[in-house]
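Sorry to interrupt, but I need a hand with the structure work. Could you write out one complete protein record for me, on any chain you like? Could you add the entry underneath, on a fresh line?
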Amino acid sequence: MSPSVRLQEMIRVIRGARTQGEERGVIQRECAAIRAQFRQADNGTRSHNLAKLLYVHMLGYPAHFGQMECVRLIASPRYNEKRVGYLGAMMLLDEKQDASLLITNSIKNDLSHSSQYVQSLALCTLACMGSAEMCRDLAPEIDRLLRASNSYIKKKAALCAVHMVRKVPELGELFTPAARSLLSEKNHGVLHGAVVLITELCERNPDTLEQFRKAVPELVLMMKGLVMSGYSPEHNVAGISDPFLQVRILRLLRILGRNNDTASDAMNDLLAQVATNTDSSKTAGSAVLYETVLTVMDIKSESGLRVLAVNILGRFLLNNDRNIRYISMTSLQKIVQTDHNAVQRHRGTIVDCLKDQDASVKRRALELSLALVSAVNIRSLMKELLLFLSSCPPELRAHTTSGIFNAAERYAPSQRWHIDTILHVLTTAGGDVRDETVPNLIQLITTATELHCYTVHKLYRALITDISVQSLVQVACWCIGEYGDLLLRGECEETEPVQVTEDDVLDALETVLQSHMSSPATRGFALTATMKLSTRITHNVDRIRSIVSIYGSCIDVELQQRAVEYNALFKKYDHMRAAVLERMPVIDKSSPGHTNGESAGGTIKELEPAKLTQEIVLPQEPSNQVCDLLDLLGDSGEPFQPSPSLSSTAPGPASSTAGGDLLDLLGGLDVTPAPPSVTVYEKNGVTLKLQTDRQTDTGMTVTLTATNSTDGDITGLTLQAAVPKSVQLQMKAPSGDVIPAHGLGQVTQTVLLNNPNKVSLKIRVRVCYTSQSSVCQDTVQIDSFPSTAW
C-alpha cells in the first residue's frame, strides 16, 4: 500500500470511529508510529507522515512534535517535501515558537530560488507567520521581488509586504516607491495586491497618505476602466468586472478623499457613474454599491450624490437577503443625523422591517425608527412603535420603551397625548421601563393642571383593571391620593364621567396593599394615598384610620415607619393633618436640585430624600428656622438657616408653634448639603462622576453617575471597580444599562468601601459601553477624592 493511500486509509478509519474514545485510540496509534518514523533516517516517507500529522492537528489533537520535521522538510531540495514543510510551518509554527527562527535562512534562500513556485511558498509562509525580527531581516528581499518582472511573484510579494507593514510599521517607507510603481501594472492580481498595500501604508502614515493623494486620478481611471469594460471571462463575477478589485479601489479612494476637497472633487463623477451603472440584483453588484455608498458618505461629496447614496441603501431595504437589509440599516443609522430628510423618504420601508423575523434586523429597524422620530411624524410613527411594542421580543422591550419615552419627551404635540402615550407603554410593558419613569410621569402630571381630572379617571380605570404592572400602579396610587376629590366628584369633560364612591376608591387601594404582587414600594404609595384621602373624603375617615393602624406592626420596616408616623398625625397632631397632607405643588422641572433622572442644565445637585423617622428627642429651644415644607403651616417668610441651637443638647422649653410640633414629629430632621462630586471620565459624550459619602470611621459609599450628551442612546453600560487588597469592596446593582441621549437621564451605581486600615484610597474603574454600534472600553485610575474621603 502506497503512502498516499495510507493517508486516505487513516482518514477513512478515523471517520469510521463510532465513539470519541475509539477515535482517540486510532490517533494515538498513528501518532506513535509517526514519532517512530521521525526518529529513523530519511526513508522517503517524511512528507507523507507530516501530512498525516497535519490532518491530526486539524482535528484538534496535539501535533507539536512535528515542528522540527517541518524545518527539515523546508530545507529539502525536493519540491514535494518543501511544499509540505512550508504548509506544516504555517500550521504548527508561529512567531512565539523558537523553531520559527530556524527557517529564516531557508526562506531567504528560497526567495532567490529559480522556480517561481518555490518563491511563492516562501512568500506565503512569511506572510502567514513571519515575526517582527524575520520581517526586518527579509524586508529587502521583498522589496526586490516587488520590482520583479514576474506578475505571479509580484502579487504575492505585495501581500507579504502588507503583513510586514502591520508587524513593523516603519518598514512602510521602504515599500512606498515600489507600491506606487505597481499601479501601472495590467495584471489584476498585482493591482489588487498593490491597492491593499497602499491602503495599509496610508492608514499608518499621514505623510504617505498625502503622497498617494496625487495618485487619485490614476485610481479613478483604473476604476472607470473596470466599470465600463466589456465582458471579460477571466474577471467576470455575476456580470460585474472584478468586483474584488473594485471594492478595494473604492476603499482606498475613501481614505484618500476623507477631509480633502481636491481629492473628493476628483472622484465625485466616478462615484456617480458607479452608483448608476452597477447592477444590484446580484451579491457582487451589491458589494460594489455598498462600498460606493460608504465612500460617498465619508468624503466631502456633493449633496445630490449623498441623496443618491441614501436611495441605494433604500433599495437594499427591499432586498430579500437579510444580510443586505441589515448592513443597509446599519449604514442609515450612521448618517441619519446628517442626512435626516433623505433617510425620512424610506421611513415606510424601515418601519416594515420591524416585522422581520430576524432578531438582528428587527433591532436595527427599531434603532433607526427611533432616530427618525420628529415633530412632524411623531403621531404616525409612534403608532407603529406602540404596535411593535405589543408584540416585540422580551429582549427589545426595555430599549423600545426607553426610546418611546425619549421621543415623547422631545416631540410630544400636547400634554394629553404625552400622558396617554406613557400610560399606554406602562400598560403594555410596564415591567420593562426604567426606574425614573414613575417620578418623570408624576412630574408631567403635576404640570398638566387642566388634565388632572382626566388623568385620575384614566388611572383609576387602569388600576381596577390590572394591578400587576407595578410602575402603573404606583402612578395610579399617587394620583388618587393627590386628586381623589376630582375622582369622587365624577365631573370630567375629557372622558365620560364615572360615578365612583369613597368605598370604591378605598377598596382599590386596599386591594393593592393586600396583593402579593405588590412590591414594598408600591405598598408605600398605596398607604400614602390612603392617608392623603383622609383629607379629601368625609365619610370614611375611620376606615382609613383602621387601615393605617394595621400596618403599624408590618414586617416591612419602611411601611411600618410610615404607618406609625401617620398614626401619630391622627392621634397627636390631628389639627395639623390637613396642612401636612395638602396637595403637592406643581413641580418645577428646571428648579435646582430637581433632576428626576435628567440633567436640568448646569451642575446636577442630588438631594437625598429625608426619611420621616420618629425618635425620642430632647426638647429643643423654639425655632422658626423651618424648611419650605413648614411654610404650609405658618406665615414665616424667613429662609431656613442652621443655628447652633438646633444641634445643642442643652434642655429648653418645647415649642408650641405648628413648626415646632412638626419638628418634634420628624424627630430632629437634619438638612445636610449633598456630598461634592468629581468628574472622573469624559469621552465620546459619556461623563462619569464620582460622589463620596463617608458613613462610618472606616466605611464609605461611592456613587458613580453616568450621563450621555450624544444624539443616540448609550447601551450595554457596565462599570467594574478594583481597589487595593486591604480595602473591601461591594458593588450594588446599577440602576440600568442604557444612558438616554441628550442628557435626558442617567445611570447610577453604588459602591460600598470598607477601609479598616485607613490606607490611601485608590480606585480603578473600567467603563464599557456601546455607542453607535461600536464597543468602547476605557480604564480610569482615580487617585484624588473629595474631602469627605480618607
About this structure: The domain at 677-782 is CATH 2.60.40.1230 (Immunoglobulin-like). The mean pLDDT is 81. Strands lie at 236-237, 240-241, 677-683, 686-694, 699-708, 715-722, 728-731, 746-754, 763-771, 774-782.
